[in-house]
Sequence to fold (172 residues):
Amino acid sequence: MGVMKVEIRKAVLRDAAQLLEVIQNADAFDSVIVQLGEVGLTVERIEKWMKENEETMTLFVAVKEDRIVGYLMVQRGKLKSTAHCGTIAIGVHSDVRGEGVGTDLFEQMHDWARKEKFHRLDMMVLTNNVKGIFLFRKMGYTIESTKQDAMFIDGRYIDEYLMVRFIDQENE
Fold:
């Protein structure tokens, strides 16, 4: 029958517990920006964060067989002068890596971002996140700059790339 397709939808507050599970899993499997041990992420903190940012943040989730298996967050610039910019964070559960969940999340978000009149989408990615960088390039993002020694993880410094895509300058 093939791989079961995921449903992409906007997150709601009742998704917080499953979101926490996916964020923790993605953090454990990737060298990600948010080191959760430092942040102390909880279901309550995710719910509070969703409520506090509902005006400027859109959070997409990937659902497979009634289980959230990935997320993609876009935070719009809060000022009128930065409202054309969106900053992205994405995570995919290790159980479904390589099944196209990240691609599906990006495609849905890109359609939404065009309708919402975004111009620039960007994200920070650690330079040792090879699979993430591969996905982001596949989705049309390019490296704009390198932030040297941006993170100190497991006793060593790691650089970050700022990757960017200008979503409204394309014919798709």
Notes: The longest helix spans residues 101-115.
